[in-house]
Amino acid sequence: MITLNNVDKINEEMEYHYKKNLSLKDRLKRNKDSYSNFNKPKQPFKERVKKQWDRNAIVYIFLVPTLIHFLIFQVFPFAFSFVLTFMDWKVIGDPEFVGFKHWIAFINDKLAWRAIWNTILFSIYYIVPTMALGLILALIINSGVKAAGLFKGIFFLPVVTSFVIIAGIWGWLFRGTESGMVNYLLSFLGIDTQLFLADSGQALMVLAGLSIFKVAGSTMIYYFAGLQSVDRQLYEAARIDGATPLRIFWTITFPLLKPIHFYVAIITTIGSFQIFDSTFLLTGGGPNYSTTTIVFYLYQQGFAGLNLSYGAVLSYVLFFIILVISLIQRKYLGQETNYY
Amino acid sequence: MKKTITYTALFLLAFCFLLPFIIMALGSFKEMKYALLDPLFWIPEDPTFSNYIYLFNDGIFLRWIFNSLVITIIPVFSQMFFCAVLGYIFAKKKFLGREVIFWVFMGVIMIPQQLLIIPKYIMFADFGWINTYWALIVPELWGIMGVFLVRQFLQNIPNDLEEAARIDGANDITVFFKVILPLSIPVVATVGTFSFISNWNDLFQPLIYMTKEEMFPVTVGLASLLGKEGDFGIEMAGSTLSFVPTFIIFLFFQRYFTEGIQMSGLK
């Protein structure tokens, strides 16, 4: 079988180099010639179909439905959403073309900009701690501790748990009364009872804390994979030179993880711009709009307020923000380091 | 010395990560009055099953669990199958437009799902799919990420086995079921575990497509419980019950989660 495979490969390669040096006209001529040269009788239609079928049946059977599904559930909604931003689309009655009305409304909508600012603020609270915690967890797991797999599982558990469950517990922990657990613990440090989710200055931070807890485990996995690919000899050389562990970390490990820092930063940023669940579950956007994020505002406008067209505008704003982040990723990372 | 610090940090962190789950489990055996008074989560003084009994007697909760199972299990198996076939097609088959189609698929990953939700809502309202399982099942029958994972996996597998089967006279369908599918069990399991978790835990989509209480999946149901002030014990019992399937999947397929996350950049 191996020889057969090789013959195939060699043929393919020869064909490639051959074709490269021929013009299209020559190639067409040669194709024609090759038929007559071999004096091969043209196969009957039925047989050709059968051969094609044996070779590629699976492509024809599965690709067509997939493409239709893809057009209906991905491509069409994407385009339709854009059209929607220029329409007044009531659920009942005919749609009406209104031009840039909703886009202009967006530009003048202070609350929308507040939502964008809140989301940026959320990213600030969320990205660096998530990365730091993920890196710390990965470093500990990677340092040769016993039962590393078990601990990896424990740190990963929140990633697979639904936001609803974690938010339920989080809301209880951060109750803004003396009987809340975090307040109770803080009282030992002599800190007054905090309002947490009811305080417009703190609510967003508490929600960021929830997300950090939820996502750090997946960040850990990326860093763990990165740490395992660092050349051990570098550490040994540094140790022989008498470097302290801290120095080894800052001069070797940390810089070598650069592609992973960048990658994790990008996906965490994208994730943070899509945050919805915790706001919806715990604060409802309040107090005083301090936790109204883009997606939550989209939900409020689009579904609670049934202003579907304006919701579509907001969703496109979200899309453009994420597009910019993705383009930065593409520019600095390139295709091949995109996926691990 | 260094070891002591490492292990102390490890156990402290592990405790912090497990604490919410311990609180959930213990809280589910607490009566409401204790749950609200006791700032710590210590073992309830008189543990009670009343919260669980309440949920089981209240038929709607079981209905939520059933809804979640329906909208999770069908997409899981469908995704495993279709992603395996499509991954195979994109990894091994030669046909016109293969690369273009694949990169269009991959480009669509960048579109946040929140963008599609409003047009999809209008579409589904037209189809009459609001408050039906169709709205949550049909769009999830296959996934681009799953196709990508299987393709990555199969590209690293030599063609020899497939060629051998072909020489023995196998056609496409036979090759797929007898050669490719058995080979790709690990990656197909990865696709399945991710599909399970994302469908079981999804809140945003069912929140919009399901407006009748009896059609809620357990996430939306729990969210509605959460809104009712003071039902902490019941809420935690509900959380615990809805956590059980996730936890079972997690115990059995943990390896696939971590591999999948490394391979794909999924979150």
UniProtKB/TrEMBL annotation, chain B:
Record keywords, A-Z: Cell membrane, Membrane, Transmembrane, Transmembrane helix, Transport
InterPro entries named in the record: MetI-like, MetI-like_sf
Main location: membrane
Database matches in Pfam families: BPD_transp_1
Membrane-spanning segments: 64-88, 100-122, 134-154, 175-197, 232-253
GO BP of this protein: transmembrane transport
GO cellular component: plasma membrane
ABC transmembrane type-1 domain residues: 65-253
Membrane topology: Multi-pass membrane protein
Protein's cellular compartments: Cell membrane
Domain of life: Bacteria
Family statement: Belongs to the binding-protein-dependent transport system permease family.
Identification of the protein by name: ABC transporter permease subunit
Source species: Gracilibacillus salitolerans
